[in-house]
Amino acid sequence: MPKLADTLVEGTVARWLKQPGDHLRKGEPLVEIETDKVNSELEAPIDGVLIEVLVNAGDTVDVGTVIARIGDSAGLIQPTGPAVAPEATAADKSSLTLMRRRIAERMQESRARIAQGACVREVELATNAADRNLSPTAIFIKALAAAADVSQVGMAVEVAGGLLVPVVRNANSLTLGEVSARVRDLASRAREGKLLPEEVTGAEFTVTNVGAVGTLMAFPLVPVGQPGILAPGAIRDGRCFLTLCYDRSAMNDYQADQLLARVADELSKS
Questions:
Q1: Angle between the 253-268 and 136-148 helix axes, to the nearest 10 degrees?
Q2: How many CB atoms lie within 10 A of CB 177?
Q3: Alpha-carbon span 45 to 26, nearest angstrom
Q4: Model pTM?
Q5: Which domain holds residue 152?
């Protein structure tokens, strides 16, 4: 089981793409791995034959666990990993996916560790918010990056089986058009399961565009390790409700109000 991210301690074998006896080429997709942050295809490390599958689809095991053995055409095991596979961790047999279990655990951690605060403004958006060539989410990301002086902004993307938060890098220095292009690329690849592990780490702040599905207002929990999360509601007649949920240990009520006011000012600029 590969370590796909610095904080990863376990992963789930989602689906084997090859079966025992199949011939493999180095770099060929071998198995799909599911984690709480991203799904990835693990490639065959060498040419050979898949001799044995040690971890079944649906099972969750610790990072470093040997999940399969590859041999040559004569069936001899190639020295590509530990000689003895450690015992696999028993899988959680609940109906929840690993991703949803991790989301629930992070939300419980957020409630337990963070003194949650929230403030709301009704804001008027600049005319570029109606530009269909621009992603609405990008407009809020760009405004937040400028107002909070941050460069790495996470964006919540709903996917099958859960939620992913890819990170828009350098959001404060990119043009709005460039941020929009990155938002659409990350969202598309998130839904296709093609994000890289490094693309879902390092967010300094998060935007969750609840208005994209028609919600007028929401109060999401602050992600652990971040000062806050911005939740824009549905845009109606050029206006929307903008909610800032924040960690009271990172900013007080006045500071949060001032930050939200700066975001509103950025959104009003044409």
A1: 130
A2: 15
A3: 5
A4: 0.70
A5: 111-268
Same domain, 85 and 129: no
Instruction: Confirm whether 127 is domain-assigned.
Output: yes
Q: Model confidence over 23-81: pLDDT tens digits?
A: 998 888 899 888 766 777 888 888 889 998 999 988 888 888 899 988 875 555 554 44
Residues forming beta bridges with residue 159, ordered by sequence position: 162
> 15 - beta bridge partners?
32
State how many domains the chain has: 2
Residue 2 DSSP class: -
* Whole-angstrom distance, CA of residue 39 vs CA of residue 41: 7
Whether 102 is in a domain gets the answer no
Buried b (16+ CB within 10 A) or exposed e, 232-266: bbbbeeeebbbbbbbbeeebeeeebeebbebbbeb
Distance separating alpha carbons of residues 229 and 206, to the nearest angstrom = 5
Interatomic CA distance for residues 239 and 127, integer angstroms:
11
Long-range contact set of residues 250-256: C-beta below 8 Å, sequence gap at least 24: 251/117, 251/227, 253/117, 253/119, 256/117, 256/119, 256/228
Q: Are strands 205-207 and 228-232 parallel, antiparallel or unpaired?
A: parallel
Same domain, 150 and 186: yes
Widest distance between CA atoms in the chain: 71
Check residue 236 and report its DSSP letter: B
Q: Mapping DSSP to helix (H, G, I), strand (E, B) and coil, where does residue 150 land?
A: coil
Same domain, 9 and 136: no
Q: What would the two tokens of residue 209 be?
A: 């565009």
CATH number at residue 126: 3.30.559.10
Instruction: Identify whether residues 10 and 44 lie together within a single domain.
Output: yes
Residue 161 is predicted with a pLDDT of: 72
